[in-house]
Amino acid sequence: MIQNLSAAALPASPTAEGSELRAPIIEVRGLGKSYKTARGTLNLFHELDLTVEAGELMAIVGQSGAGKSTLLHILGALDTPSAGTVYCASTNVAHLSARQAAAFRNREIGYVWQFHYLLPEFTALENVAMPLLAGGNRKQDALAAAANWLREVGLEDRASHRPGELSGGEQQRVALARALVNNPRLLLADEPTGDLDEITAGRVFDLLERLHATHGLTSIVVTHNLDLASRCTRVLRLEGGKLNPLATGRQSASSTGTLDGKSTVSGQN
C-alpha cells in the first residue's frame, strides 16, 4: 500500500450534500514542465493550477502540441513535473519511485488511449484480464472479473475473439473494459474516439458516460471532438501553458468555431 509522501493535507471541499468535507481527487499547484531541445529550453507548462473534484467528467481541449497528453501523463504518474506539486488520489505522485508509480497506476488509474494497444495474440477476455494478472491476482479470478467487464461493455459474445477479429469500436470498448477492470477511481482518456468514425465515436462516448456515472468515476478526457467535449460537466482549454475554463453545452461549444484549432467535424482527430 502506497501512503502519502507529504504531511501537507489537501484542501478540503464540500461534498454535493454538504454533510462532510473531502479532498479533491486531483490538486495541482504551480505545475511546470520543461524540456531541453536543440534550440534551448521548451517550457510546456508554467505555474499551471488544476483542481478536479471527485465525480467530475472533465474535458481538456487545445491545439496539437499544447501539452494535453503530457498533462495526463503527469496526472497519472507516467511522467514527472519539472516544478510544482501534483496530488492525485491523495498521493504526491511526483515523489513516487518507478516501482511505487507502477503500483499506484495499477490501483488508482484507468487509461484509455486513441489507439487501443490491445495485445494481438490474446483474446478480448485475456486482454481485459491483463492488469489483474500483472497485479498478482489468480488467473481464474482475473478471467471472471474480465468476463463481467466484457458483459458491461456489451461484448460478452466476443470474449474469445482476438483484436484483429474485432471492429474499431469493439476494440476500443475492450480497451475501456481493460482500463476499468481494477476498479480505479480515476479514468484518464487521451483522444479515446479520435480513431473512430462519427457514429462509432458517439457510441463509445455514450458508453464512457454511462460507466463514469454507474461506477462513480472521476474522468478526464482529452479530445478534439467539440460535440463530445460539450457533453462533459466542465471544459478547459490548455493554451500558453495554462488551463482556462470554457462554457459547456453543445450550443456554446459550437459557437466558438474551433476550441482546438482543428475541424469541428465529430470524430476528426
What is this structure, in a nutshell?
By secondary structure, the protein is an alpha/beta fold. The chain has eight helices and twelve strands.
Describe the structure.
α3 packs across α4, α4 (139-152) crosses α5 and α5 (168-180) runs parallel beside α6 (198-214). The longest helix has 17 residues, at 198-214. This protein has eight helices and twelve strands. The radius of gyration is 19 Å and the shape is globular. The chain has 269 residues and is of the alpha/beta class. The chain has a domain at 54-80 and 96-255: 3-Layer(aba) Sandwich (Rossmann fold), CATH 3.40.50.
Write out key terms for the chains shown.
269 residues, four-stranded antiparallel sheet, Rossmann fold, alpha/beta, disordered N terminus, 8 helices, 25% strand, globular
What is the level-2 CATH architecture name of the domain at 54-80 and 96-255? 3-Layer(aba) Sandwich
Overall pLDDT metric: 83
Largest sheet report: 6 strands, mixed
Radius of gyration, taken over Cα atoms and rounded to an integer in Å: 19 Å
Q: Give the strand line-up of the largest sheet.
A: 8-9-10-5-11-12
Distance between the termini: 39 Å
Portion in beta strands = 15-25%
Amount of helix? 25-40%
What does the secondary structure layout of this molecule look like, with pairings?
Blueprint: E1 13-14, E2 21-22, E3 26-37, E4 40-52, E5 57-61, H1 68-75, E6 83-88, E7 91-92, H2 98-108, E8 109-112, H3 124-134, H4 139-152, H5 168-180, E9 186-190, H6 198-214, E10 218-222, H7 226-229, E11 234-239, E12 242-246, H8 250-255
Parallel strand pairs: 5-10, 5-11, 8-9, 9-10
Antiparallel strand pairs: 1-2, 3-4, 3-6, 6-7, 11-12
